[in-house]
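From: lab user (bench 3)
To: helpdesk
Subject: output format question, protein + zinc ion

Hello, I'm new to running complex predictions and I'm not sure whether the block I got back is the full result or only part of it. Here's what I submitted:
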Amino acid sequence: MGKVYHFSKNAVLGTLVLAVTALATIIALSVAYHKERANNQSKPGNGASGTSSTSAPPTTPFTPKVPWDYYRLPKGLKPESYNVTLWPRLKPNSDGLYIFTGNSTVVFRCLKDTDLIIIHANKLNFTTFEGMHAKLSSLHEEAVPALQKSWLTARTEYLVVQLQSKLKAGAMYALHTEFMGELADDLEGFYRSEYLENGLKKIVATSQMQPTYARQAFPCFDEPAMKAIFNITIIHDPDTVALSNGKEKNSLLSVVSGVPVKVTTFEPTEKMSTYLLAFIVSDFISIESSTSNISIRIWARRTAIDNRQGDYALNVTKPILQFYEKYYSSNYPLSKSDQIALPDFNAGAMENWGLVTYRETALLYDPMLSSTGNKERVTTVIAHELAHMWFGNLVTLHWWNDLWLNEGFASYVEYLGADYAEPTWNIKDDIILYDVQKVLAIDALASSHPLSRKEEEVSKPAEISEMFNSISYNKGAAVLRMLSEFLTEPVFARGLSSYLNTFAFKNTVYTDLWDHLQQAVDNTPGLDIPRSVSEIMNRWTLQMGFPVVTVDTQTGTVTQKHFLLDPDSVVGRPSQFNYTWFIPIKWMKNGVDQQQYWLLDKTDTHSSMRVSGEEWVLANTNVSGFFRVNYDLDNWGRLLSQLNTNHQVLSVINRAQIIDDAFSLARAKLINTTLALRTTTYLSRERDYIPWESALRNLDNYVLIFDRTEVYGALQAYLKKQIKPLFEHFRTLTANWTRVPAGHSDQYNQINALRIACGVGVEGCRELIKSWYRQWMENPDHNQIHPNLKSTVYCNAIAFGGVEEWDFAWRMFQTASLASEASRLRSAMACTKTPWLLNRYLEYTLDPTKIRKQDSISTIQYIARNVVGMPLAWNFVRARWSYIFEQYGQGSFSFTNLISGITMRFSTEFELQELKRFKEDNLHVGFGSATLALEQAIEKTTANIKWVNENKAEVFKWFIKETT
Ligand code: BES
Ligand code: ZN
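Helpdesk reply: Thanks, we reran it on our side. This is the complete output you should expect:
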């Protein structure tokens, strides 16, 4: 889902040098989901063979008339259990197609008399029985209604069975179907993944059901609240292994239709939702360990396991599971935990219950070849998916409109799980960068939307897919963290545990969680919150955006206001709370923590915030709250001088927040741009990663806007001045780059130092990097470059080299034995400044034999990030819009990033016109899930033009002043 820029921290670290320096930021108006991590794209919505709701040009709205016109299932039937047998063929048939066959019997209860059976099915070919798609039987003595007719609906993805008489309320029936489907390479439903081993092509049959693709594997009531028990049987080649959610019950050699096969049956699952099912047939091997009652296995290609790339995942899984068992006070609900790395996978990972699927980059780790960033990625993704085993899988939200709670929750507690497994990393602080700051930038747009949606607003597959966005993930994580902070973690965990135990194997709505947290609050003497949990949280979940809190330290007045990045933008969406919030404010005075204060009105006076002399106030310590803070100018001045005299008095995340708030406030015209720039002057003494990273992201926005203008030289000179001490610091610390620092985040900042320094031309940097790459080219089997530095080195060497450097990278990419190494090279190849190489690379992105489908959109984005590649990518995408849209655009959210990625530099009137023309020219094709991104790109370009007009001269002057 894959995340905004779905870059892994490393990928990002690598790509950008070129564009020079800094990190991608994302004032990206893209609401596209995703954490800065692996290029995980996520998922399509539509898939209907015939009519596609996303691609159709706008027509008059369709009014549903009959039950099968609605996207939601009627409430009259409820599944109890399924017996499903699937037989994927890993060799093509005589037409060259890969297929699967299967049969399924679903036992369901009738709750209301009806003569219609409506069940999801999509892209399946049914065997007919006397002209009917299904056979119906009764589990009682009574006669069963005869079938009158049956048909498939393409738009709503149903199999509909019309009966001659009614099913009776209270009775149970069984519906049997036999069908065939294509095992396509489309990364959804039951699909195939391919890889080479010793020159031989191997096929894996695997699945991705979330959110609406289980219906492509077998007919099912494909809604999360339709929980049932699944009895799965898989037929497969005797030399392959079959996996599913349950434990293997038996696996017997047999002959089916004259073919010798293995028939593997699995123990019945727990009561669960269809979107969490998984079926995999492969010749993968596994390693395993166990706790007292859970057997843990890691599966991957044989060579990956032989090369011990699964060991790290196996090692961290146990502590992470143990952490959650304690945190949730609830045992792991199953008896086994399988996790598998797949060569082709659209998202980053998927929490199928008991059989979690991953991209290879998100599960495999090689101590010799992988970077620290790769390792952290593995830890956090595992922690995220395993968090879902309880929150999401054991207790499931009733409908997709509440997705933010599921994904936001996992995105918050993944930090807790990962911290337990790797306590020395200090990883909990990182949520500020990858969730809080990231989504503060997005949620500040007039076109944002509330976390919570009404059930009726989310019905069709494309609407469901759109829920997997940055607001759900990152804002969800941020507000849950705020909640846990003001309730205190033990109270939060107690409420959670009571919620999980109450609703195990059932479905909930978000208010159920608030109720249980409220009970925990009520049972905690001394814990004082000024309103109920739900009253407080409604402000954060039912209205979009967040407040900027202004503290006037002269008067002690504290006010709040809806924060908008562009003060001239118009908020079209009314709020029942008038855009006011109940705001928990942790704060300090002169470095001393004060008692938490609640701002409950638009404005209030808190006299202890009145200070004088050298005293300063800092609000939102630890960035516990989801809001920005502004001060009177005097207090700003005192905070700046504190930074400049002794910045250590403030925590790393507060240093980062001062910078990030200041840049946003300036963009919103609440403070001067020069005041924001002044928060970066102390950086020449800053050595910590998080503040540097925040500053670089903000300065990177300047880079993107100015890297084609005369301001760029001065900006580079400033960056050079600021980065030099950091570069020297790490050069000394690492004995001239021969080692890496011990601290986890120091390792990231070492990479920043090298990357920026080379980007701005610090003496010696490029030569160093070129020589390392040359050594590797001379001895391709012995890459001596430290894994942490590879992304930066590859990118720079390719940027400053020519076709030889590029072609070498391409060869290494094709033969890489580790996915994250391939991924680094893929991103580095986008760094070349040679137009024909970039154009050739663009062509490769749409050729699945060269670039896997899962990686094509992110590769185009990497190219667009390069200042030379941007116009080429823009032309490329415009010229092939309908093809790209057809092949890659059906509801996938990585697709949203394509538009925001290409347009992020747009800041001229001419570019705005081009963008508008692109929209006009392609109305007949459509933009699918990128529709909103296109609108936002237009909105953002308009705002950029204005910002440049108003700020360019001042910014230019400031950089010159600082560097002469
Ligand atoms: N449930 C999602 C995977 C998913 C996303 C499926 C979108 C279908 C559509 C999974 O739990 C997830 O969030 N995966 C993330 C990784 C995670 C560490 C944030 C992903 O795929 O990027
Ligand atoms: Zn998730």
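A quick orientation on your result: Residues 1-3, 34-35, 40, 42-43, 210-211, 347-351, 380-381, 384-385, 388, 407, 410-411, 468 surround BES (ligand 1) (CB under 6 Å). Let us know if anything else is unclear.
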